Amino acid sequence: MEIKELDNNIKVFVNNFELINTQEISYGKGSPHIKEHQGHFKIKENPKILGKGDCKIETNLLSENILEMTIQVPEEYNRINIKLNTSKSEKIFGGGEQYTHLNLKGKKFPIWVQEQGVGRGYDLISIVTRFKGVSGSWYTTYFPSPIFLSTLGYAIIFETYSPMVVDLKGKSSNFEVWDKTVKLVIIEGDSLKKLSKEVRKYFNTDHTLPNWIHGTLIASQGGTKEIDKKVDLLIKNEVPLTAVWSQDWSGTNITSFGRQVYWNWEYDKKSYPQLPEKIKELNKKGIKFLSYINPFLIEGSRLYNIAKEKDYFVKNSSGEIYKIYVTTFPAGLIDLTNKRAYEWYKEVIKNNIINIGTSGWMADFGEYLPVDAVLFSGEDAIKYHNKYPVDWAKLNYEAIKESEKKDLIFFMRSGFLDSVSYCPIYWAGDQNVNWSKSDGIASVIPAALSLGFSGVEFTHWDTGGYTSLLWMKRTPELFMRWVELSAFSLIMRTHEGNRPDNNVQFDTNRGILKHFIWMTNVHYMLKDYLKNEILKSKLEKLPVIRHICLNYPKDPQSYLQQYEYLLGEDLLIAPILHKGSTERELYLPRDNWIHLWSQKNYEGGEYVRIKSNLGFIPVFIRKESPYLNEILSKIDEVKKKFKIDEKSFKP
């Protein structure tokens, strides 16, 4: 990295390319127009650019390849526009969790935490949800992040929680920050792999995963009797069950949307009587219990009334509790800028979740802070909005640390910037139970890969999807293909969905159950490999689920792949993403590969078409992998044990 200073002008060069000329930094004034509906935000603004180049710039060279640059504009302005030079061939990755596009070059979008949306595209379900104001757009995401990695050899981190508008469509890359000051971190590197490592190092992520995470984590709703029923069935059929996840541990709230959780974070004594004793019973069988929490409390519940009395909720402009409707019912949102509220909610987690024996939980939501909310701290809600999920992650992280108990985890969907320092595991959120690229099974792959570019270590998804509306229901084929995808992922956790009775589950019929038994055992067979890859991930600062260009930077075709991924160093996964498909074309990067099921050799650097009956997702292993013989041998053992062949399963 080279920095040239002349008078009031600073130029920054990366790999001999002029990236920034501070004379091109402009500033102005803007008034945001933000409309919100159930966690979905529409952001419009046309700021007036009133000045250019006359900024206060401070630089700090942290190392030979990392530069901090702080930009401050005159007090009367509130918008900063930072211009980066670009090239036609440049590809830009990152931006947090992106479900539709990995290469963001040529796109314009806001950096704003919000609901992902239902549909997010142009299919029929998207048209229906657009009328209801909840469809979302290609860029809407639970976890945006102002982190970008370029094939020109740089990464840039914007250290701000303020909203941003990113415009990568023109001859330059433009980043509009809604603030008077911003700190940039510019990193030089000769590959996306090197840049990804530096991003991880910058946030100092150092999370560990418990051993039980490598088994099957099964969703169960309806109470302890349902848990017993599922556990008995799975143990009987030799499924490697290591955890039961009951999101409705605090009770059920039946709404027009479906079966939802009663948001009062105490175990429901009616459906889960003597839950602490039941958890001990499960633990004796080697099974952990996972639950659920979010930063809302449903109006009228016991904990809501306590928080109301203590004045712990976010307020509206009239000084009343801001009643937020997530689907159909009102709830209060805990004001995390209030230190007493923050500490009280942490105690709720420690006393009502951790101390009853829970080993982990979904820490849901974090996207809903209204822009006109009145906060205890007096902060501007627009500027705090993106920080809310960071503080929500920090609260859960501290609850575990202060409990001094080991092997506990939580997982989130919402995030921003340094959330990665606190939350160990992310999941992709609420996908539709369909095949769409915009919001179905296919969308979880770019979501995972983009998170990997944005500093996240460990990620996964709801096996089977979540959202079921109108005619959209989970089919046997979709569920089985999603199970196959999850079998070759880091964490295999199911979800029954918002309407479990209307959707296929793992035990809907014997054929689906047989397929589930097969794939869960295949996943468990990978545990030693995955343990090693997790350790390598911590040491090398690379995600376990990663884009193939990180390992094959000199292969031009590797940058174009969006719906296949590497699981660790040695496994390449290309799932079936189309209804009725029994084959798939995929790209094998330049290496020597063995097809997992046929054990046929393939030379990389070309596209191949692979047959894929149900139960046999396209998977390749590097010929030079030290795990090659072990994995192939274990696959054969599992096939023989359960008498599996390529004609075993039908949709």
UniProtKB/TrEMBL annotation:
GO biological process: carbohydrate metabolic process
Domain Glycoside hydrolase family 31 TIM barrel: 209-530
Gene3D superfamilies named in the record: Glycosidases, glycosyl hydrolase (family 31), Golgi alpha-mannosidase II
Domain spans labelled Glycosyl hydrolase family 31 C-terminal: 542-624
Keyword Membrane found: no
Gene Ontology molecular function: any one: hydrolase activity, hydrolyzing O-glycosyl compounds
Cross-referenced Pfam families: Glyco_hydro_31_2nd (PF01055), Glyco_hydro_31_3rd (PF21365)
Keywords annotated in UniProt: Glycosidase, Hydrolase
InterPro entries, sorted: Gal_mutarotase_sf_dom, GH, Glyco_hydro_31_C, Glyco_hydro_31_TIM, Glyco_hydro_b, Sulfoquinovosidase_GH31, YihQ_TIM-like
Keyword presence, Ubl conjugation: no
Family: Belongs to the glycosyl hydrolase 31 family.
NCBIfam families: PRK10426.1 (NF007746)
Entry protein name: Alpha-glucosidase
Protein species of origin: Petrotoga sibirica
